[in-house]
Amino acid sequence: MDERDVDLLIAGAGPAGMTAALVASLEGLDVLLCEKSDQVGGTGATSAGTLWIPGNRQSRAAGFSDSAEAADKYLDALIGEGTNRALRDAYLQSGPDVIDDLAARSEVRFIPCGPHPDYRSNLPGAALAGRAIIPKPFDGRKLGADFARVRPPIAEFMLFGGMMIGKADIPPLLGRFRSLSNFIYAAKLFARYLVDRIRYPRGTRIMMGNALIGRLYYSLRKRGVPILFGGEIVDVIGDRRGVTGARLRVGGKDMVVKARKGVVLATGGYAHNKRFRDRFMPQPVPAHSMSFSGNCGDGVDIGERLGAAIAPERCTSGLWTPVSRVPRADGSEGLFPHLVLDRAKPGLIAVNGAGRRFLNEACSYHDFVLAMFESHKSVPTCPAWLICDADFLRRYGLGVVYPGHRHPWKFVENGYLLSALTLDALAGKIGVDATQLRETVARHNGFAKTGVDVDFGKGETELNRFNGDAQHTPNPCIGPVAVPPFYALAVWPADIAVSTGLSTDADARVLSAEGEAIPGLYACGNDMASVMGGSYPGPGTTLGPAIVFAWRAVMHAKARRAQEPDGPFVG
Ligand SMILES: Cc1cc2nc3c(=O)[nH]c(=O)nc-3n(C[C@H](O)[C@H](O)[C@H](O)COP(=O)(O)OP(=O)(O)OC[C@H]3O[C@@H](n4cnc5c(N)ncnc54)[C@H](O)[C@@H]3O)c2cc1C
């Protein structure tokens, strides 16, 4: 059997595990990162890459003021004062320093997101700008042939089968024939992509979560940190009195890794473990997940077998988004997350199986799904239906149908959208009562005239308006559904991350059911119970804590000799 001795073993090469490995190397530890698949990135590579770091200095330098104190007030209002106090304090205190430390000592750099309201922007302490940061775009060519090791984004987020575009690219691309500068911008992007495709499997101009992973991987390579691809952690060695290493499965063979300072579990959470889904999620258990398919709950299972506690107790166990199911040309099915582009725009409503609206459609994607769960208790709402008209589809697009698409009927033909010339006919197609749907639309169209949604308050919060259409009056989020043909799109609940995981202390040390830290065992990312108690304060709710607690775990592990003189790793 293969054996190895290291200071720190880290399992899982997503944002959490890669950060832990990088920091460990920067701190002079002998580190091994094992990754079950043959690529780095996990779900992180397919994410938007935003981090929620209150008081970060990148935003302050750009003129957006914010503070940990204001964020604390906001979290008190959102989550409640008592929950996870020590972890929340640690998170708010160290967040900005962690981001600066990574920027100073590695290629992992972030830039301010600028204006981006928190998801409950009407609560005390909520910020309208400055809390969110995003990874600086990255040039994948720096990785050479190893660029193929970076997991690609989801297919529905790329053009021409491999070209990433950012938010700033959308207006010039859509308006490429409207001005010379737009045309040149679009032509340059396309030319770069064509050249890329001669040497690389996809475009190398990467951004969002893919840039985060590219930057982490580049930094790890520069420091020569070993990554054991195809290396799956199956168990740890030790018991709740102390963990001294782990057993891996590598290419069908067993391997033992002795880890002097400890083992960090960062295997991405349990999203694809049916047993855990059935146990933690609401009934009926949502069938769809946007998490990486290799995230099978290995870390949570290993921790629980050792006697670790599971937390948080009261939550839906997921961080949710509504998704539409996309039929792909090869017969497979994609999932498109309806995060920000369509729901808040004027001229779209969401209805349940009774043909009634059941929420403010412009709320956050997490809150949208919570409202689906609530409505589903009395009326079938999984799926819910997004309803719009021809004007809306042309102007704003819907799901994978981008604005101004010349052939929207193709999406009707392949079954993505349902369409009809009258609301009655559309009601028949989606199986809701026609009279009720007509009444729902008529009532909503009245709100479009007055600008006031007396039922659900669409357009009332900063977040609503931020994602609406500022040019549209009197309410940037409400417009009539009036011009045939009418369209309906089914949306289902899906997790983008899970929030139930191993209970930890503020240094990411895994806690036993008795509340004692298990020496030498750490958890971060989605293997760690959500520091937000399963709620979703703003953009970057999981990646922020994943990176901050990975950093804290390593700093604790490094200092273990001094802190735990009687622990099993002294020497
Ligand atoms: C479309 C989308 C957009 C998102 N946008 C954001 C955003 O902007 N901000 C935000 O905060 N969050 C976002 N998220 C959520 C975020 O991506 C995840 O919460 C985050 O990636 C979790 O990081 P992680 O390191 O814990 O897990 P992952 O990124 O999933 O990585 C886990 C890794 O562990 C590996 N692994 C699994 N089992 C084993 C094992 N037994 N041994 C070794 N390796 C193993 C996996 O192969 C994988 O590589 C988004 C998610 C989606 C789907």
Topology, please?
Layout: E1 2-11, H1 15-26, E2 31-35, E3 51-52, H2 57-61, H3 68-79, H4 85-105, E4 110-112, E5 132-135, E6 138-139, E7 158-159, E8 163-164, H5 170-174, H6 180-199, E9 205-206, H7 208-222, E10 227-229, E11 231-239, E12 242-250, E13 253-265, H8 274-280, E14 288-289, H9 298-305, E15 310-311, E16 318-327, E17 333-337, E18 348-351, H10 365-376, E19 384-389, H11 390-396, H12 409-413, E20 418-420, H13 423-430, H14 434-450, H15 462-467, E21 486-498, E22 501-502, E23 509-511, E24 517-523, H16 543-558, H17 560-563
Parallel strand pairs: 1-2, 1-13, 2-10, 13-24, 14-21
Antiparallel strand pairs: 3-5, 4-5, 6-9, 7-8, 11-12, 12-13, 15-22, 16-17, 16-21, 18-19, 19-21, 20-21, 23-24
Helix pairs in contact: 1-7, 1-16, 3-4, 4-16, 13-14
The structure holds flavin-adenine dinucleotide.
Q: What's this entry about, in short?
A:
The chain is an alpha+beta fold. 32% of the residues lie in helices and 22% in strands.
